[in-house]
Structure formats: structure tokens, C-alpha cells
Design brief:
The chain has one domain. It is an alpha+beta fold and 172 residues long. Helix 1 runs antiparallel to helix 2 and helix 2 crosses helix 3. It has a three-stranded antiparallel beta sheet. Strands 4-6-5 form a three-stranded antiparallel beta sheet, covered by helices on one side.
């Protein structure tokens, strides 16, 4: 998983039209969790945000993915499903780093098929990230992708991009 993040970062396009292309004139720049400094891609943690160093307000919520979840510190759904999954989210507000978040969610689903991904975005919002992911990893099985080319419907009616994971002890 960490290698996927590093590969994405090394092949990051200058601009993106993901999430409707609302910020397509701004470059994609990844920063640390608070929108400044360097992103973290380590064996224990993947954490990054958009760019808050330029004064253009291109950061929003931190993408924060731990290898081991401390269940005492994490939000637990009030009514968890039978499979007892844990909830995480990252709202990007359609800012340029949305492409990187979506591609990482796809990679997480590839490596950990039990992960569930939901989003308020539809096919058009995700298509740039799906296309980029496929271009970076063309030989990977496509069954984990959130949409097929023919499928142009919402992923779910969830209001935020989120992942739900059961066991993260082997994730990074």
C-alpha cells in the first residue's frame, strides 16, 4: 500500500478534473496532514492533505490511514453492521488532492477487498481517478474499481468519501 502511494506521488499529474473539476486551474500539491510540510508515507501511517502553503485554501481534511487502528481513539458507528467495520472519512471539498484520495481509496480496496468505499460523488467525479489509477497500474484486476465504464450511477448516497475497515494490522 505504501509503495502504491509513493508511486502515485511520483506520477502525480499537474492538474485534475476529479470531483467535477472545480479546482482544475490549480496544481495538485500534497502536503502534510495540516496542509503544510511533507506528506507521510510510512509503514505505520499514510497521512496527507491538500496545499495550504500557497494561500489558496487548497487543503481540507487530512487523509489519515493507520496500519493499526487504536480502537479506543476511533469513532465507532452508533449502529455497526454485522461485520463490525470501523468508519473513516476524508472530505476533500472537491479540491485538487481529491484525485490522490480517490486513487488511494481504490488501491486500498485492491489490497484489502473487505474494505467498503462510499462517496457523495458519482461516476463523473470518480472517472479521472479511476482512469489515472488504471494508467498507473494497467495490469491489475479491475474488479475492485468503484465504477465500470458502463456504470454511471452514484456509488452510494453517503455524504462523504469514506472507508470502513475491519482489521488494519496488515495494511501497510
Amino acid at each position: 500500500m505504501v509503495q502504491d502511494c509513493k508511486w502515485f506521488w511520483e506520477h502525480l499529474p499537474d492538474h485534475s478534473e476529479s470531483a467535477g473539476g472545480y479546482y482544475k486551474e490549480y496544481p495538485i500539491r500534497l502536503r502534510g496532514g495540516n496542509g503544510t510540510g511533507e506528506p507521510e508515507f510510512s509503514n505505520d501511517l499514510i497521512a496527507y492533505n491538500g496545499d495550504d502553503e500557497t494561500g489558496n485554501d487548497l487543503a481540507h481534511e487530512t487523509f489519515y490511514f493507520e496500519r493499526v487502528i487504536d480502537k479506543e481513539d476511533h469513532y465507532r458507528r452508533d449502529d455497526p453492521p454485522e461485520d463490525d467495520l470501523w468508519f473513516e472519512c476524508c472530505k476533500t471539498a472537491r479540491k485538487p488532492y481529491d484525485l490522490f484520495v480517490c486513487a488511494n481509496l481504490i488501491a486500498i480496496k485492491y489490497h484489502f477487498p473487505e474494505t467498503k468505499i462510499s462517496s457523495d460523488g458519482g461516476y463523473a467525479d470518480w472517472k479521472p481517478a479511476v482512469d489515472w489509477y488504471v494508467s498507473v497500474f494497467p495490469d491489475r484486476d479491475k474488479t475492485h474499481l468503484p465504477f465500470s465504464d458502463e456504470e454511471e450511477e452514484e456509488i452510494t448516497n453517503e455524504e462523504i468519501v469514506s472507508t470502513s475497515i475491519q482489521d488494519t494490522s496488515n495494511m501497510l
